[in-house]
Amino acid sequence: MPRKPEQVQPMGPTQGEGSHLHRPAHGRDGETVPLLSHLNRFDLKPDKKLGQHWLTSDKAVRQIIDAADGLAGVLEVGPGPGILTRALAPGRKVVAIDLDPRMVEAAAAFAPGADVRLLDALQADWMGILEGLPHPRGIVSNMPYNITGPLLAKAAECQPRIDRAVLMMQREVGEKLIAPAGDRRRGAVSVVFQRLFTVSRVCLVPPGAFLPPPKVESIVLRFVPRLPSHEGVFALVRQGFSHPRKTLANNLAAWGKDVVADAAEGLSPTVRPHELAEEDWFGLYERLNR
Predict the structure, then answer these.
(1) Do residues 59 and 79 touch, judged by C-beta distance below 8 A?
(2) Residue 220: in which H helix or E strand, if any?
(3) Do 47 and 69 share a domain, yes or no?
(4) Furthest CA-CA distance within the chain
(5) Strands of 218-225's sheet, edge to edge?
(6) What is the structure's pLDDT at 5?
(7) Could you tell me if residue 11 is inside a domain?
(8) What are phi and psi of 19, to 5 degrees?
(9) Do both 248 and 151 map to the same domain?
(10) Which of 70, 150, 242, 282 is buried deepest, with most CB atoms within 10 A?
(11) E-assigned strands of 35-129?
(12) CATH number, residue 43
């Protein structure tokens, strides 16, 4: 006798977070499709190896959609079963990419207005996909925790081609991205992203907003392109943060003690990299290379 497929069980949302698992999801023509029925139709269960945590919160979906308001074209990275894709698709050209064939099939069925493709986000040509989307265009993603770093690097490379990005990530990572000068959480990635983008917080998302719930909170950030990349300064920043708790002079010792002391004029001899603002790094770079 064939074994009956195991049914996906709803997880209780954190207080204040409505869940799509308990409510129908709305599509382009106003029809409703209960999410649990959708998941069970495809016998879907999150794959831990792929770091899958599916967003099921009505509130979080609305906040992400609001942050993406005005975009005519969207590249969605990692759509999962298509919960966010379905909300993004009406009135927009959406290309969603996922390396899990189950997710591609499910998202295409759940969001028929979207172009869902079987692609590895780490290998895919994001720039090429974006070039095929109308302006204003951007990137939207509920990023898997286990590959957040590489995905952020891909998003940064696309800065010249996008008008906005709305990205969800582990709260600890997101707060590092927005950490100001003087904040001990500040790192090289903070300086780089704050040069490339105006980064602002959209919302915090609790574990109960996902299936299955992760062990940590998430954060949604909005990225609006600001200034062009400067690889020379970025290389200096990475070197300056090579040992974040050591002094800047220590980390830049390869330049020569006297050269660094002269270039760092006006800065404390014991200054640490997290204490420098963007303009300090650019001034330091110019003086080191004059």
Answers:
(1) no
(2) strand 218-225
(3) yes
(4) 81
(5) 115-118, 93-98, 73-77, 137-142, 164-170, 218-225, 197-205
(6) 39
(7) no
(8) -115, 135
(9) no
(10) 282
(11) 54-55, 73-77, 93-98, 115-118
(12) 3.40.50.150
Q: What digits encode the pLDDT tens for the residues 113-150?
A: 999 999 999 999 999 999 999 999 999 999 998 999 99
Q: Both 243 and 150 in a single domain? A: no
What does pTM read for this prediction?
0.85
The position carrying tokens 């709803």 is 10
Count, in order, helices (H) and strands (E) of the chain.
Answer: 12, 11
Q: Which two tokens stand for residue 89?
A: 């698709």
Tokens linked to 66:
């609001």
3-state secondary structure of 205: strand
Tell me whether strands 137-142 and 73-77 are parallel, antiparallel or unpaired. parallel
**pLDDT tens column, 69-95:** 999 999 999 999 999 999 999 999 999
The percent of residues in the chain predicted with pLDDT above 70, rounded, is 88
Do 215 and 92 lie in one domain? The reply is yes
CA atoms within 13 A of residue 64's CA, in its CB half-sphere: 31
Run of H or E residues at 279 = helix 278-288
The encoded tokens of residue 189 equal: 């990635």
**Type of residue numbered 239:** Q
DSSP 8-state symbol, 120: -
What are the structure tokens assigned to 164, written together? 């906005």
| Three-state DSSP class for residue 67 | helix
Consecutive H or E run containing 165: strand 164-170
In a domain, 97, yes or no: yes
Tokens of 175: 């707060």
